[in-house]
Amino acid sequence: xxxxxxxxxxxxxxxxxxxxxxxxxxxxxxxxxxxxxxxxxxxxxxxxxxxxxxxxxxxxxxxxxxxxxxxxxxxxxxxxxxxxxxxxxxxxxxxxxxxxxxxxxxxxxxxxxxxxxxxxxxxxxxxxxxxxxxxxxxxxxxxxxxxxxxxxxxxxxxxxxxxxxxxxxxxxxxxxxxxxxxxxxxxxxxxxxxxxxxxxxxxxxxxxxxxxxxxxxxxxxxxxxxxxxxxxxxxxxxxxxxxxxxxxxxxxxxxxxxxxxxxxxxxxxxxxxxxxxxxxxxxxxxxxxxxxxxxxxxxxxxxxxxxxxxxxxxxxxxxxxxxxxxxxxx
Length: 330
Hints:
Helicase, Ruva Protein, domain 3; 15% strand
């Protein structure tokens, strides 16, 4: 099984933006002891990206997504991926209406604001690819017609480790559409005891009510776009991504889409932490989550058992960390 990034990465940030704190408190009534995972989900939500959560069944991936949707008052949809799922089962299908003698498009479950793509790697690559247009373009095309997806729109996909029976690896093109990839990990003894206590009579998710609105998310995203990024930090970011393409153990480095993803994710993390500017620690912390699933190792590195996260960490260690100019912290 892959290394649990969410537990091994250094977590240097504390505190939340005051507007986000009520939503975080609501989610943590259901999800115990996973503050770092919650922050990563908020990074994707605020940056307008999507998450891929890889872990074993039963650690709370689905509950995390449901708690987020209920706390934000967003339309929640779930797609359970199975080997026999068809692309039209995801995007929708045109049905002939005998009354008006016309075809009508029946929207599929991807037409939601917060979409859970559960066990996405249990279905065929053909059905997986049906999500590509929705993930990148935020719309679906069927029978020559284009249908816009509701806003805000975010897909949180879960997958079992590829070593599990009955799984298909995600195509590189689809992996590149996910802003972040991380794991949740098992709870600690203390947290697991707390979970048992909270669910003794009923599940706490049944008590959740919206503490924010979908319109709030769109407003937060506008504020995220205004977060200041110093020129030196932009160069630092691009230098990291460029280094993945020149590393001796890497066959295929991160694309320019990865640079854009890391830039937007850093802005979102800064906002989530209550800052109006990005610091180098934002880049260093997010790089493994943004880059690792976008990098293909060289065959000899794979045979040697080299982990992609280890390569990213070595690249980070080799990059000089920029100093913020006076007046940047505003």
